[in-house]
Amino acid sequence: MATISQSSPRLRADEVSGEVVPAAHANIVLELIGNTPLLEITRLTEGLLRPRVSIFAKLEGFNPGGSVKDRPARKMLEIGLARGDLRPGKVIIDSSSGNTGIALAMIGATIGYPVELVMPANASRERKKILEAFGAKPIYSDQLEGSDGAIRLCRKIVAENPERYFKPDQYNNEANSLAHFETTGPEIWRQTEGRVTHFVATIGTSGTVMGTGRFLKPRNADIKIIAVEPDDPMHGLEGLKYMAASIVPGIYHEDELDDKMPVSTEDAYEMVYALGQFEGILVGQSSGAAMVAALKLARDLNEGCVVTVFPDFGDKYLSTNLWIGWQEWRRERLQHLIRKWNVSANATT
Ligand SMILES: Cc1ncc(COP(=O)(O)O)c(C=O)c1O
Fold first, then answer.
1. 341: closest CA among 278, 247, 249?
2. Residue 295: CB atoms within 10 Å
3. Whose C-alpha in 27, 73, 275, 307 is 20 to 30 A from the C-alpha of 290?
């Protein structure tokens, strides 16, 4: 059995310099996790931002499992193996709305452990197929109970047979945030050459915003760490949590945030269409939400470097509600929509 190699060593800010150089070749797919590109969003924002304001999106869809969740999945399993909690004979199990499941299934396949994933029955068809393609076993919870239903069912399965399972428990495992502290944060610092002024990230488990924020804040206390959440408990933003009505993740520490921004499902979907038609990039719903928040924030700045995260690409969602009725949203109407986002900006720094 191969061990998980650490391709993204812990870095101090003063050690972070030069270009991000992805591995020229790798002998295990895990070495390809991280070092994702930053894309400056310029077309969709044309005429909306002041000259010294820019928005960059970290394209996490470039990870081998196709999402940001490859980072925490690798770290949680690595620490599990190092502590001996994950050892031969164990089955990896967790509740996941999809991307963590895919990441665990991919890594389980490479390190030779079976994986079982509990998810709401309405997870997208593409995600279910991807999991099975990696050899994992899906277990379905009641779709009406959303991700909390999957969490509860997974707890029950493990409680009935604790010896059989290793549960990374992404909602309560600090290795989740640590992965972002060790990789996402340093990459953003290095890719912006320390110029980042605002970090904007959607919250599901909150690992991305917590860990990245924890890396960036000590480098520059003025950097604002902003979480984006759905504005409604009945939202359609896969992977995201409306905290006030959810089981709050143990790794979520609201006091470490500078602000929280609500985004509606409708705005997020429209932004997904706009990103496709203006920037030529097809992303998932949560990326749309992240971009709406980044734009709302950036248009009020006199200067700044706003960095957000696009957690995955959009191909997994083509059969979901996101794409019902989208034909209404052709370029002309989107242009109108973008003007709507450009309402009287009150400049602050
Ligand atoms: C598509 C998508 N977006 C955003 C997130 C939120 O990331 P985090 O769990 O780090 O808060 C997730 C988490 O699963 C996700 O799958």
1. 278
2. 25
3. 73
Quick check: 333 pLDDT over 80? no
**Other CB atoms within 10 Å distance of the CB of residue 306:** 24
User: What share of the chain has pLDDT > 90, as a percent?
Assistant: 69
Name the active-site residue from 54, 67, 69, 241.
69
Beta bridge partners of 210: none
CA distance linking residue 203 with residue 254, whole number of Å: 11
Handedness of CA 60, 64, 66, 71 (dihedral sign): negative
Neighbours of 222 (CB within 10 A): 9
Over range 26-49, report the average pLDDT: 93
CATH code given to domain 29-62+182-341: 3.40.50.1100
Query: Fold identical between 29-62+182-341 and 70-166?
Result: yes
Residue of higher predicted confidence among 24 and 42: 42
Q: How far is CA 336 from CA 274, 288, 329, in A?
A: 11, 17, 10
Tell me: pLDDT of 97 over 90: no
Q: Tell me, what's the pLDDT at 41? A: 97
177 CA to centre of ligand 1 in angstroms: 12
For β-strands 224-230 and 137-141, DSSP reports them as unpaired
Q: Give the residue, by CA position, lying nearest to ligand 1 atom 2.
A: 239
Whether 8 sits among the annotated catalytic residues: the reply is no
Per CATH, the number for 70-166 is 3.40.50.1100
For the chain, domain boundaries = 29-62+182-341, 70-166
Structure tokens at 205: 């488990």
Tokens of residue 286, six digits: 């949560």
**Residues 6+ away with beta carbon under 8 Å from 186:** 8, 11, 13, 16, 215
User: 278-307 pLDDT, tens per residue?
Assistant: 999 999 999 999 999 999 999 999 999 999
Catalytic annotation present for 69: yes
Question: Mutual orientation of helices 99-111 and 70-83 as an angle, nearest 10°?
Answer: 50
